[in-house]
Amino acid sequence: MSTLDRESQGSVEALLGEVRVQEATSIVMVSHQELVHTRSDAVLRLHLGRLVPKGAQGHGTGSR
Questions:
Q1: Is the dihedral of CA 24, 30, 31, 32 positive or negative?
Q2: pTM exceeding the 0.70 threshold for the entire prediction
Q3: What are phi and psi of 46, to 5 degrees?
Q4: In the chain, what percentage of residues exceed pLDDT 70?
Q5: Kind of pairing, strands 44-47 and 50-53?
Q6: Residues of 5-23 as b/e, b for ≥16 C-beta within 10 angstroms?
Q7: Distance of alpha carbon 46 from alpha carbon 55, whole angstroms
């Protein structure tokens, strides 16, 4: 698996943000990088096969 360095990641996120505004559209991004959510309007997480809002109970704990 390859990842972007922080500078490249920031550049890609900024570009996607510009495209989103210019085109008045939404962008769906899937990432394992925790920092990606800092520029997001909404964050959903997948936990035990279900989508859960950011900060919902059970996130990252492995609990059931």
A1: positive
A2: no
A3: -100, 120
A4: 80
A5: antiparallel
A6: eeeeeeeebeeeeeeeeee
A7: 12
